[in-house]
Amino acid sequence: VFELRYPADVELFAESFKQATSIAGNILNIAIATANQQRFAEQFAGLISIKPDNLKLETAILDALAELAAGAAHELNNPLSVISGRAQMLAETEADPEKRQLLKQIQENTSEISAIIEDLMSFAKPAPPRPTQTNIKQILDEAKHLACQKVSHKAGSQNIQPQQLDIQIDVSDNAKDVFVDSGQIVSAIANVFCNALESYENEIGPIKVTATSNESGDFVKLQITDFGCGMDTQTLQKATQPFFSAKPAGRKRGMGLAHTARLIQLNKGQLNITSKPGQGTTVSIYLPITKKD
Length: 293
Known about the structure:
Helix content is about 55%, strand content about 15%. The strands form 2 sheets. The chain has a 5-stranded mixed β-sheet with strand order 2-4-5-7-6, with helices on one face. Strands 1-3 form a two-stranded antiparallel sheet. It is elongated and about 85 Å long. By secondary structure, it is an alpha+beta fold. Helix 2 packs antiparallel against helix 3.
């Protein structure tokens, strides 16, 4: 435009520049928000990997990180809402299909960033558990159904049924009811199921699940075993860190096992993972049978 050497319609140029700069501004705002989100995520992941010896110190660190996450969410969500809203308004009045597609991509990316922030917040400051005495078989069955929904959503299909997933559940006669927030534990176990399914190329299994009361009778021990790709030592050490993923760039956010570990900790349980490359992974979860102080 600046290279034109003949008289032009200034008002037409002004209107064209207004639209172009608005779109360019939205794109730059997305880039800035993405960079900030990545920086906050890396700082958060680095801090959360600290393993203090004192439980009170660990709780204090998590509380501080929750405040950090809340601040990050506030700073990022406001501009994201503006970007998304403006992109939607522009798309509604845009006649050019290519420009509409660009505006749609802006909206999709802002939604993705918002989902990342939501993941961060739900990890840093989850709802306090409301434990009740719950049948372990019921928890496992619900976790299987939830995993099926997640797999269906990922595949863009609603036709995948729980029986299509090769998840074999064996609950021992001595497995007692557990004292946990069933909703949180169902979510945690479903994340483990999804991770196990992703270790196979066909993403259907098999996964073997056993549940039995431990010798002391204080916990129910769940063992979730797959025979998929497995993890090396370095990957295993970072498996429950937020935003860590062994997948290449463009992969999912890597919050599944981090959420699992956090929810099990909140419910006074324990989590242990063993794995070998090419041989599979076993996730052991210990859930309290009675109320723990």
